[in-house]
């Protein structure tokens, strides 16, 4: 092989780049048709209160069943959807369907649970976000207090008047706002005092090693104390073990979400799992 290519590293880098470009082109092409072809489905992950052992809410998480690629992870297609702007119609579909689903669960007697919907920056910045949320709430008849939108710090980093205004208007509709993946972004903590936030979600990267890693324990502890002092709710993401659950509970964080309770599951499975139980007592596993 020629010297100009500077050995295998260069070629390897090139080849893998090409492969990932190809894949993302395929993802992009597919995304355009995914909505009309009904290839999206929402999965729901329970959120529980470890003190009462009750179901308090669900996070709606998007899944894409591609006809040839199979199930594509959100990590692979959400960034493409964000770049192309397709996240706007896709996100609208998510919001509408998540609200509809949870309203129907309320009507069937599984209440009062909150539904959390992830919102990307592109959606948040759209002029008509407030109208959209208002319309979806009216259409689905979901009580606004049962809808929570999850924003990330990277969205909030802009910390502009427009960001504040949008958040205030959302809160005026009666819905809740949480900060997803809290502690992993690049923003300062100052925004916490300006913005009308309800809940901090401790990122899984801190929770996953909270028992064995002193730094993660310290960070997690600090987030719990911070939330407490600011009168915010706090929920831990990615709780997988009983030790993690015990640690979090001992620090005063009782709201949790994670594989220990359940991975995200299909709506039908969710029904089966949570409707059978009389007063929604959670049977772990
Ligand atoms: P996220 O909002 O932080 O969601 C939590 C992710 O952690 C989910 O991954 C969930 O399956 C996973 N998870 C939950 N508990 C555990 C656990 O105990 N252990 C482990 N290892 N993982 C756990 P998922 O569903 O693959 O979603 C990844 C990300 O994609 C989400 O992170 C969110 O940022 C984004 N996403 C998913 N659905 C949507 C959507 O409808 N709209 C937007 N804008 N983003 C979405
Ligand atoms: Mg989330
Ligand atoms: Mg998260
Ligand atoms: Mg995340």
Overview of this protein structure:
With 285 residues, this protein is α/β, with parallel strands linked by helices. Helices cover 47% and strands 20% of the residues. The protein has an 8-stranded mixed barrel, surrounded by 4 helices. The protein is globular. Ligand C2E binds next to strand 2, helix 2, helix 3 and strand 6. Residues 59, 118, 150, 180 line the site of one magnesium ion.
Cα shape: globular
Low-confidence stretches: 1-9
Summed up, the helix count is 12
Q: Using the CA coordinates, give the radius of gyration.
A: 20 Å
Distance between the termini: 56 Å
The count of DSSP E runs of length 2 or more, i.e. the number of strands, is 10
Strand order of the largest sheet: 1-2-4-5-6-7-8-9
Percent helix: 40-55%
* Fraction in beta strands: 15-25%
Structural class: alpha/beta
Major beta sheet, specifics? 8 strands, mixed, barrel
Oligomer: single chain
- In round numbers, the mean pLDDT is 89
Secondary-structure element string:
HEEEHHEHHEHHEHEHHEHEEH
Domain EAL: 24-278
Protein name: EAL domain-containing protein
Please specify the SSE layout and strand pairing:
Blueprint: H1 7-34, E1 40-49, E2 54-66, E3 70-72, H2 74-84, H3 87-107, E4 114-118, H4 121-124, H5 129-140, E5 147-152, H6 153-156, H7 161-172, E6 176-182, H8 191-194, E7 199-202, H9 204-207, H10 214-229, E8 233-236, H11 242-250, E9 255-256, E10 265-266, H12 267-275
The structure holds ligand C2E and magnesium ion (3 copies).
One magnesium ion binds next to strand 6.
């Amino acid at each position: 092989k020629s010297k100009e290519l500077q050995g295998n590293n260069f070629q390897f880098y090139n080849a893998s780049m090409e492969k990932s470009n190809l894949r993302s082109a395929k993802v992009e092409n597919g995304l355009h048709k995914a909505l009309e072809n009904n290839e999206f489905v929402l999965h729901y992950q329970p959120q529980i209160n470890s003190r009462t052992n009750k179901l308090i809410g669900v996070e709606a998480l998007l899944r894409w069943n591609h006809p040839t690629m199979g199930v594509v992870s959100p990590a692979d297609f959400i960034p493409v959807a964000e770049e192309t702007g397709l996240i706007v119609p896709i996100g609208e579909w998510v919001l509408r369907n998540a609200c509809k689903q949870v309203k129907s669960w309320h009507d069937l007697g599984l209440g009062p649970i909150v539904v959390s919907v992830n919102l990307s920056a592109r959606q948040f910045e759209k002029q008509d976000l407030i109208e959209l949320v208002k319309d979806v709430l009216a259409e689905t008849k979901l009580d606004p207090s049962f809808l929570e939108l999850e924003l990330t710090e990277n969205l909030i980093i802009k910390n502009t008047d427009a960001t504040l205004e949008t958040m205030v208007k959302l809160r005026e509709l009666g819905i809740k706002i949480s900060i997803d993946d809290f502690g992993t972004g690049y923003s300062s903590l100052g925004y916490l005092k300006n913005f009308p936030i309800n809940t901090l979600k401790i990122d899984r990267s801190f929770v996953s090693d909270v028992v064995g890693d002193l730094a993660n324990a310290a960070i997690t502890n600090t987030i719990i104390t911070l939330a407490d002092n600011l009168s915010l709710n706090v929920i831990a993401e990615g709780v997988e073990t009983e030790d993690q659950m015990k640690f979090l509970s001992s620090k005063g964080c009782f709201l949790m979400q994670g594989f220990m309770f359940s991975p995200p599951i299909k709506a039908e499975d969710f029904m089966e799992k949570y409707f059978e139980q009389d007063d929604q007592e959670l049977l772990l596993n």
